[in-house]
Structures are given as C-alpha cells and as structure tokens.
Amino acid sequence: MRPFITGHEDLIHDVAYDFYGRHVSTCSSDQHIKVFKLDKETNEWQLSDSWKAHDSSVVSLDWASPEYGRMIASASYDKMVNLWEEEPDAPECSGKRWTKLCTLNDATGPLFSVKFAPGHLGLRVGAIGNDGILRLYEALEPSDPRSWILSTEVKVLPNPPASHLQSDFCLTWCPSRFSTEKIAVCALDQVLIYQRDQAGKMYVAAKLEGHEGLIRSISWAPSIGRWYQLIATGCKDGKVRIFKLSETLQQDSDEMSVDEAPRETTDDSNVTKGPKLKVELLSENADHGGEVWSVCWNLTGTILSSAGDDGNVRLWKASYMNDFKCMSVISATGNN
C-alpha cells in the first residue's frame, strides 16, 4: 500500500477507479474533484486535472461504463448531481479538461451517494440523500448525454430524521445482464432491494436484515459463472456481511410498488405482486475489531475487500463450503 499526495485542502470523501483501473478520481470538502492517471513506467499516480465541481462538499462520485465515453457523476451537499465529460484535447492540469454536461437538481436536501447503472441498462444514474428519496435518471439520447429525465422516484424513508451523516446512505446496482433491473439501497440501518416488475414499476423484492448499526457501505458482486447473486455490506457494528440472493416464485402481497411518476404517498392502487428474492446470510465476520467503512468486490466477484477502523484492508474469499474467510491483510507496512 503506497500513499500519494492528492493536494486536496480538506477531507476526502470518496475515491473511484475507472473501468480499466488506469485513472482514479477523488472528491473532497474543498468542493473539488481531482483525476489522477497511473504512470506505467514509475507506477506512480500523476495529477491529470483538478476543478471546482460544486458549491459545497463533494461526497460521492462514479465513472460511467466505458461504452458511453469518459464520464463522471458527482453528488454534493449542495443538493445537485453534476455530470462531467472529459475533453481529451484539453491540456492536462488546466482545470478545463472536464466539462459539465448537465446538472440534476431535483433533491430537496444534501445528496450522499450517486452511482451509474451497468452499461447494459443504458445510460442511467441513481442518487439518494438527506430527503430519503431514491431518484433514477436516464439520458434521453446516450450519444448526446446533455439531456436527462427523472424516470423513477422511490420514497425509501417515509419520514427521514432531521439530520444524517453522509455515510448513512449508499446504493449499488445489480451488475448481471441476465437478471432484471435491481438496485440495493442502504438507508440508516436497513437494506432494501428494489426490482422492476413487468409494468416497469419498482417494488421491494427483498430486505437484507440482521444489521445492528448504521450501514456504511454496500457492494453487489459481478455474477460471472454463478446462478445466484452476492451482496456485501460493511456496518457500524463492526461486521462484514455477505448475503446470497436467489430468485423464487414466491409472491409478496404486502410490498408496495412506487410508480415512476413522483408522488409523496402510495395507495392501494399502487400495490403490485412481484417475485421475491430469497435471501441467505453466508458470512458474518468482525475481524476489523471496529467499524467497517467500505466493502468492494473485484471484477470477477470472487474476492471481497473491506476497510475498517483497524486501518487495514482485508481480502475475503470463499472456501469450498461457500464460507468466506480472510485470506490476506494489507496494511501500510506490508502484506500479511
């Protein structure tokens, strides 16, 4: 593990790699986004560009699928999601290499998390924040991503508390192209899996239960070669949990569907019966000895990394019994 100086003047809230792992972006309370590129010869990260992205703390960012070009989405306490596109002909470190495509400003409170959908779902982006509402946006024309519409609005928390921390909300999309559209949303201490029915409406298909504190991070594993899905969570209660999700024909008449048209409440006319997901807790570990702040799967969905209060990154891999064990501990002083 080799640190490098970012040049940010305040706390860094999020770090994201592009699809190829050759560029990394960071965002900070200094209202700036920075993009670094990896020098293949020296294996050092070099600043490519830095710019003021918002009028408040920038707390989340994500790269779009490479098939839609080099694009970054950012979310901020200023209630806005900004979409940025790289201008490859602009000089590096000029502050002009990344230009703003558009601003999505439907939120009524600070935003905490933003994620692009997998490429096979089209050019879409999801965001959630202080108002407890999940909003999904879609580009009108993927070849010209300057015009977007609010396609779906889901009230995750009917009565959100007056104040939150940025780390109390996060979301992740199901990356499988062989499954219907799904998105997992963490709000405080609960995880809800939303899925589209045949009418295009979102409903709660599953809940990941058992968390005993605020959920800091969630990651949906790529399902290469698997018929089921894996989701990992990192929680304030100090545990890394891995859940197995599989399809079932069971219907749940108690779940509410939220129409794509924005609305404050739901009534009986919006109740739909959709197939539920079967949830099984595969693994639960407290090796970090404190809060778990981040979890992330590798590109094949075979190894999970987690970071916690112990200052270490732990790598988890499944045994032949499908029980995940810590295979390596990475610290600033070396590998164990």
Task: Describe the structure in your own words.
The protein is 0% helix and 51% strand. It has no helices and 26 strands. The strands form 6 sheets. A 5-stranded antiparallel sheet has the order 13-14-15-16-20, with no helix packed on it. The protein has 2 domains: 152 residues, YVTN repeat-like/Quinoprotein amine dehydrogenase (Methylamine Dehydrogenase, Chain H); 144 residues, Methylamine Dehydrogenase, Chain H, CATH 2.130.10. With 336 residues, it is an all-beta fold.
Q: What's the overall average pLDDT, rounded?
A: 88
Q: Tell me the number of structural domains.
A: 2
Low-confidence stretches: 250-272
- Number of DSSP-assigned strands: 26
Give the C-alpha Rg. Answer: 20 Å
Q: What's the tally of helices?
A: 0
Measured as a percent range, the helix fraction is under 10%
- N-end to C-end Cα span: 12 Å
CATH T-level fold name of the largest domain: Methylamine Dehydrogenase, Chain H
CATH top level assignment of the largest domain: Mainly Beta
Biggest sheet: strand arrangement: 13-14-15-16-20
Keywords: mRNA transport, Nuclear pore complex, Nucleus, Protein transport, Repeat, Translocation, Transport, WD repeat
InterPro entries: Sec13/Seh1_fam, WD40/YVTN_repeat-like_dom_sf, WD40_repeat_dom_sf, WD40_rpt
GO cellular component, one term: Seh1-associated complex
Pfam families: WD40 (PF00400)
